[in-house]
């Protein structure tokens, strides 16, 4: 079995209102014959492909900065545990 990163499109079926389309980066796992068999929970997502491209650009930019050491921080941030926008970005 092998895997790679792929973009997954998911359309929600809400109880009220319009369906919502979400694009996300996932790990896709394949059978030996190359047939996709499963995928991971999304680890980055956006409302459209432009948001995903923005994430890729920010990740590329991150490679241009010094590496941070986890030991220099008191503990991991829980900033995303609230209802904040995951794709929000502030330099």
* Individual helix count: 1
Q: DSSP strand (E) fraction? A: 25-35%
Major sheet size, sense and barrel closure: 4 strands, antiparallel
Task: Please identify the structural class as seen in this structure.
Answer: alpha+beta
State the separation between the terminal residues, measured CA to CA: 39 Å
Total number of distinct structural domains: 1
Instruction: Give the tally of β-strands.
Output: 4
**What string, H for helix and E for strand, traces the elements in order?**
EEEEH
Low-confidence stretches: 83-91
Helix fraction by DSSP (H/I, runs of at least 4): 10-25%
Tell me the radius of gyration: 17 Å
Bulk shape: extended
Mean pLDDT: 85
List the helices and strands and how they pair.
Elements: E1 2-11, E2 21-30, E3 36-39, E4 44-46, H1 49-62
Antiparallel strand pairs: 1-2, 2-3, 2-4
Q: Can you tell me about this structure?
A:
This protein is of the alpha+beta class. The chain has one domain (2-71). Helices cover 15% and strands 30% of the residues. The protein has one helix spanning 49-62; strands at residues 2-11, 21-30, 36-39, 44-46. Strands 1, 2, 3 and 4 form a four-stranded antiparallel sheet that branches. Strand 2 and strand 3 (36-39) form a beta hairpin. The protein is extended, with a radius of gyration of 17 Å.
Keywords:
four-stranded antiparallel β-sheet; single chain; 91 residues; alpha+beta; disordered C terminus; 1 helix
What is the gist of this entry?
The chain contains one helix and four strands. It is α+β, with helices and mostly antiparallel strands and 91 residues long.
